Amino acid sequence: MHIEEFARRLRARETTVEQATNEALRRAEAEQSRLNAFIRIMHAEAHQQARGLDQELASGRDRGPLHGIPVTIKDILDIKGVATTAASNVREGSIAQRDCPAVAHLRQAGAVFIGKTNLHEFAFGTTNEDSAFGPARNPFDPSRSPGGSSGGSAAALAAGIGLATIGTDTGGSIRIPAAACGLVGLKPTLGEVSTEGVVPLSRTMDHVGPLTRSVADASLVFHALLGDPAKSPPPPVPLSGLRLAVARKYFCDLLDDGVRNEFEAALDRLRKAGAHVDDIEIHHANDIAPIYLSLVLADGAAYHATTLEAMPEKYSPAVRLRLEMGRYILAEDYVRALAGREVLTREVDAALGQHDALVLPTLPIPAPVLGASTVEVDGKLESIRNVMLRLTQLFDVTGHPAIAIPMGMTTAGLPTSLQLVGGRQQTDALLRVALACERLITK
Amino acid sequence: MTIQAWLQSAVADAERRKLPELKALLEALARSLTALRAADFNDHANH
Questions:
Q1: Cβ–Cβ of B41/A340 closer than 8 Å?
Q2: For A336, which of B13, B29, B37 is closest by C-beta distance?
Q3: Which of A17, A87, A205, A215 has the most neighbouring CB atoms within 10 Å?
């Protein structure tokens, strides 16, 4: 079910907030042993919220489209009175004193918080395997990762728990799990949604955004996160005359066959619908990974240095080592990465100057098997972490808004995903493009 | 500091701190930093 359908049914008195909340809580409990999507299921808090919201509606107070919708929250955002674990033993006993602004806006919009979802520890990974609470699993195949770092969020929503979930994205952590679990994932423009009260990975690249079952739902939740819950989804742009840009070099060099086939089929459908699809080039694409790595490692190390010294044993070993690595980045290399960041930002701006959106796959591979560190792509063995970040991290570096929308399935029945990227501060324009593409692409 | 000198120093420090597992990661990071330094967007004092 989508948010607008739930809103209609709620106001037609075909359901209540309490019924929807009960159903979400029941599913969350029923799926926990299979998916491990939650770090905490918030029974008492959710029931209390639901009763209050039903009473409000009965007394004539309507908070708008998100009134009563069950939502899950990545356990890296503060909810007042609830521990924010970031999936780490390092944060044992860290009870939030207040809602972070993103959560406060959702609460004001009438969202009911069903639970805090599992993640890759401190959001520093793409598979959700390194978590003090154990790995979350993919509903399409529980032997596989749901992606990360917002893996529990995606697993919960894909399993039918709630109508939306909130994630964070520093290298792709909203879009990667959305892609792996067949969902829509929106990373807004850098700085658009407040990251205050969110445990940071990189204060210069962290983003907060929604994962949903449709682009219209993503628009509703995105605007609620901004404190504007009444804003309706914008109309889709006409596909005829839409100008899309594809950067094949680097971005299509390393793709699983199933992903490549679905991507080419999607481009064909867009062309047949009247869209112009032009080939372009991001000239410094080969520098993306070194730039991203230097920034995220140093930013992460700065935040974690004290606890790495004081309680190293409380980190999962792989995350601890990656954070330790950041402590060796030299200032001169960080400055070089900042210079590269400016160059990449200008190149993406230039590509978008003549186009409505960039179009590329979101994830080069389908959801990987849990426990694997490498995957074969195009006959070559690749690091899973590197390949999963390959197509998303650029837009965390540059800050452009990007959205993942489902394409078709691979022959093995795993989701694939199309990524659209828009101009900075033009997230609504990107949503209009995504609404149009979704109608044609999402099966 | 050259990448080679940086890597030697970083690996020695990691071993002193009883983190020998960092060696392989630091070697990978050294390759990444070499690429970063070779990129044509870097400014140089002589041009």
A1: yes
A2: B37
A3: A87
- pLDDT band for A443, please (50, 70, 90 cuts): low
Give the chain A residue whose CA is nearest to the CA of B13.
A328
Contacts of A293 in chain B (CB under 8 A): 29, 32
ipTM confidence score: 0.96
Size of interface A-B (CB pairs under 8 A): 57
Inter-chain residue contact B41 with A330, CB threshold 8 Å: no
Which pLDDT score is estimated for B43? 83
Q: What is the pLDDT of residues A185-203, one digit of tens each?
A: 999 999 999 999 999 999 9
Report DSSP state, residue A201: S
pLDDT at A21 over 70: yes
Average pLDDT over residues A268-288: 97
CA-nearest of A219, A263, A222, A261 to A244 is: A263
Mind spelling out the 3-state secondary structure of A202-270? CCCCCEEEEEECCHHHHHHHHHHHCCCCCCCCCCCCCCCCCEEEECHHHHCCCCCHHHHHHHHHHHHHH
